[in-house]
C-alpha cells in the first residue's frame, strides 16, 4: 500500500512539473541581453565631476559633458570620480546583442527601426547617477542612414519608448577635418630658408599639418637626375597637397621625391599637378638618415591607420541635448505593409521542445535596423519580408544559438508558402553568427 501511495505521489509531481514546463511564457519589455557573456559591451570613461569631458567614439559620435553635470538620485552633489558607460547601436546585430527592446511598449503593436541608438550611464562606484536639475549633455550621434521621417526617442524607465525631443542633422566636421589633415600631407612646404647651391633645395613643412615630414626638417637635398634647379626652386614655393619620399638606390643614397597638388581649373574641372625629382640627402651620415627614414615610415603607417579609422566614422551626425540618462534612439515606426505572415518550423525542434525550453526566436530586420523576438506560441505568425534582408536567431539552452542567414530566409520567402521549414546553423560559442 505504501508503494502505491509513493507511486501515485510521483505521478502527481511529474504531472505538475510538466505542466509548469509547458506553461506559456509571457513577453517582457525590458533590457535583457539574449546571450550570457556576449552582451554588447560598454566603453568606460573616468573623470572628475568638477572638470569637463569630451568623448569621441570610433563610430564618430561625440558626447560633451560640462562640469558638475551629475547628481545622486536624491539630488546631492557628487564628489567621487565618475565612470561614464557608453555603447552605441547602428546595426540589427548590435541591437540584438544589446538586448534593448524595439517594441514601442508592452502591447507589441508597433516596432521601431533605428537610425542610430546610444546608451549612456553614469556611476559613482555602483550607484547610478542622474543629470542634475538645469543641466544637460550634448550628443552628436553618428548617423549612417538617412534620417527622413525619424524622431528622437527615449526609453522611459528602461521599458517604453517615448518621443522626447528634436535633433539636427549635421556634417561630421571632425571626420572631414581629420581626413583633410592626413590627405594633405604637406599644406605649406612654402618658402626656402636659403639656397645652399644651384642644385640643392629644402622642404620646409608645417609639421603640425604634416607630422610625417618632421624628420626632414632642415634637411638639404641635391638634385641628381638633371631636373632644372630653377624649376625645383620655383616648385618649393607652391603649397603642395602631398609629398612622398621613396628610395631608388639606397646604396648610392638616391631617393624619389614626388610632389602632388589637386587644382581646380576654370572650364576644365579638377586636375592633378605633380613634380617628381630624384635627389640625395646632403651632409648627413648613413646611420642618421636611415633613422630619419624609419621615423618617416613609422609616422606614415600611423597616419594611414588614423585615416582608416576616420573613414569608418559616419559622414553625418544627429545633434541633440539630453536631460536624462539611459537609451536614446533616432527612430521611426517600422512599416509592416510589405511584411508577410508565415509559420516557421526549425530542425532543432526534433530534439528540443520550444515550450519546455522557453526558446526565444529573434528576427533581425537588417535593412531596417530593428529586432523583434517571438515566443514559441507566436511562431505560426511571424512577419518577414520577401525583398529585404531578415535573418533569424533562436537562443537555445547552453547559451547556443541556431542561425538562419538573410540569404536563406529571402530565398525561402520568395519561394512562397505559408509554412516554412528551416535548417539552422548551430553556434556553440557565445557569439551569434549573423551578418552585420
The profile of the biggest β sheet is:
7 strands, antiparallel
Number of alpha- plus pi-helical segments: 6
Name the CATH architecture of the largest domain: Sandwich
Characterize the overall form.
elongated
Number of domains: 3
CATH class placement of the largest domain: Mainly Beta
DSSP strand (E) fraction?
A: 35-45%
Structural class: alpha+beta
Mean pLDDT: 83
Structure in words:
The chain has 436 residues and is α+β, with helices and mostly antiparallel strands. The chain folds into 3 domains: 29-172 and 314-333, Chondroitinase Ac, Chain A, domain 3 (Sandwich); 179-311, no CATH class; 339-427, Sandwich (Immunoglobulin-like). 19% of the residues lie in helices and 37% in strands. Strands 1, 5, 6, 7, 10, 11 and 19 form a 7-stranded antiparallel sheet that branches. Strands 2-3-9-18-12 form a 5-stranded antiparallel sheet, with no helix packed on it. Strands 13-14-17-16-15 form a 5-stranded antiparallel sheet, with helices on one face. A hairpin with a 2-residue loop joins strand 6 (112-124) and strand 7 (127-128). The protein is elongated, with a radius of gyration of 31 Å. It starts with a helix and ends in a 9-residue tail after the last strand.
Amino acid at each position: 500500500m505504501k508503494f502505491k501511495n509513493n507511486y501515485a505521489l510521483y505521478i502527481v509531481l511529474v504531472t505538475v512539473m510538466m505542466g509548469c514546463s509547458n506553461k506559456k511564457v509571457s513577453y517582457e519589455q525590458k533590457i535583457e541581453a539574449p546571450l550570457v557573456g556576449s552582451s554588447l559591451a560598454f566603453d568606460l570613461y573616468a573623470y572628475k565631476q568638477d572638470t569637463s569631458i569630451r568623448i569621441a567614439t570610433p563610430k564618430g559620435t561625440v558626447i560633451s559633458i560640462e562640469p558638475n553635470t551629475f547628481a545622486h538620485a536624491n539630488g546631492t552633489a557628487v564628489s567621487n570620480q565618475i565612470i561614464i558607460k557608453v555603447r552605441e547601436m547602428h546595426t540589427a546585430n548590435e541591437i540584438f546583442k544589446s538586448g534593448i527592446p524595439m517594441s514601442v511598449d508592452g502591447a507589441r503593436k508597433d516596432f521601431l527601426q533605428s537610425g542610430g541608438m546610444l546608451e549612456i550611464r553614469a556611476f559613482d562606484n555602483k550607484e547610478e547617477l542622474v543629470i542634475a536639475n538645469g543641466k544637460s549633455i550634448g550628443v552628436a550621434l553618428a548617423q549612417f542612414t538617412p534620417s527622413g521621417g525619424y524622431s528622437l526617442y527615449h526609453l522611459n524607465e528602461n521599458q517604453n519608448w517615448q518621443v522626447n525631443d528634436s535633433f539636427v542633422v549635421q556634417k561630421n566636421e571632425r571626420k572631414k577635418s581629420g581626413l583633410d589633415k592626413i590627405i594633405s600631407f604637406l599644406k605649406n612646404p612654402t618658402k626656402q630658408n636659403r639656397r645652399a647651391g644651384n642644385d640643392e633645395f629644402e622642404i620646409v613643412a608645417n609639421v603640425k599639418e604634416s607630422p610625417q615630414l618632421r624628420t626632414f626638417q632642415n634637411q638639404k637635398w641635391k638634385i641628381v637626375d638633371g631636373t632644372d634647379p630653377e624649376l625645383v626652386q620655383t616648385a618649393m614655393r607652391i603649397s603642395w597637397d602631398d609629398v612622398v619620399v621613396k628610395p631608388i638606390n639606397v646604396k648610392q643614397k638616391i631617393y624619389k621625391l614626388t610632389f602632388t597638388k589637386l587644382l581646380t581649373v576654370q572650364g576644365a574641372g579638377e586636375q592633378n599637378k605633380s613634380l617628381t625629382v630624384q635627389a640625395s640627402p646632403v651632409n648627413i651620415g648613413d646611420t642618421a638618415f636611415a633613422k630619419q627614414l624609419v621615423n618617416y615610415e613609422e609616422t606614415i603607417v600611423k597616419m594611414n591607420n588614423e585615416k582608416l579609422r576616420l573613414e569608418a566614422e559616419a559622414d553625418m551626425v544627429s545633434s541633440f541635448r539630453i536631460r536624462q540618462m539611459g537609451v536614446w534612439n533616432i527612430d521611426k515606426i517600422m512599416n509592416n505593409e510589405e511584411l508577410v505572415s508565415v509559420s516557421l518550423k526549425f530542425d532543432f525542434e526534433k530534439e528540443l521542445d520550444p515550450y519546455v525550453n522557453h526558446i526565444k526566436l529573434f528576427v533581425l530586420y537588417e535593412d531596417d535596423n530593428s529586432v523583434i523576438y517571438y515566443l514559441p506560441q507566436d511562431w505560426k505568425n511571424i512577419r518577414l519580408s520577401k525583398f529585404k534582408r531578415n535573418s533569424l536567431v533562436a537562443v537555445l539552452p547552453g547559451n547556443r544559438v541556431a542561425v538562419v542567414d538573410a540569404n536563406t530566409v529571402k530565398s525561402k520567402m520568395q519561394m512562397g508558402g505559408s509554412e516554412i521549414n528551416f535548417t539552422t546553423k548551430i553556434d556553440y560559442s557565445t557569439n551569434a553568427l549573423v551578418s552585420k
